[in-house]
Amino acid sequence: AQSVSQHNHHVILSEAASLELGCNYSYGGTVNLFWYVQYPGQHLQLLLKYFSGDPLVKGIKGFEAEFIKSKFSFNLRKPSVQWSDTAEYFCAVNARTGGSYIPTFGRGTSLIVHP
Amino acid sequence: DAGVTQSPTHLIKTRGQHVTLRCSPISGHKSVSWYQQVLGQGPQFIFQYYEKEERGRGNFPDRFSARQFPNYSSELNVNALLLGDSALYLCASSLDQVWQLHEQYFGPGTRLTVT
What we know:
The complex is a heterodimer. By secondary structure, chain A is mainly β. Chain A contains no helices and twelve strands. In chain A, the strands form three sheets. In chain A, strands 2, 5, 6, 10, 11 and 12 form a six-stranded mixed β-sheet that branches. Chain A has a four-stranded antiparallel β-sheet with strand order 3-9-8-7, with no helix packed on it. Chain A is globular, with a radius of gyration of 14 Å. By secondary structure, chain B is mainly beta. Chain B has strands spanning 5-7, 10-13, 19-24, 31-37, 44-50, 53-57, 64-68, 74-78, 87-94, 105-106, 110-114. Classes of the chains: A mainly beta, B mainly beta. The interface between A and B is medium-sized, with 22 and 29 residues.
């Protein structure tokens, strides 16, 4: 079964600092990769996704992620964080298992940005 | 447009009881997925339904069941509740079955507490 590991459970940064959140997955086949974000008091929402093509994908609010197939990684980055980026971030993998696509989420990273 | 709606918001049940959770997808969305999110963890996939048929199932016991109605709304049923079933239950809708091509939209969740 596939699994997703998010290495940083809690990250605290000051505004304007750079952000990189790690995500590694274990699955040998074709995968689709996602980052979701949950702002305080709001629903989970899609930040960005990778299906194929350019391994560097750009999402909303200046976020980007790079898919490195050889490392089974899909790290999330932002050059300069803002206080409004304070949220919970989830990496997710969608992999074909049998005749279905089964999504697997990581346990999440809580990001706090100090103004 | 209304987003994904779930009812009830909160629920308290006793061990051994049965519970039904409800989800209404975004208008036009034909796929509904259910997730369980235990505190401090990422969402864990339970079921996906598309066009009233189960299209994917996660690693959950048979006590968990679901169905989708002709209007694409869905119910999640859990029998013989255990303390470990206490969690936030999330519903997500998407345009079709192949949700990796279409974004999933999450609802606010139902907080279930089993005592």
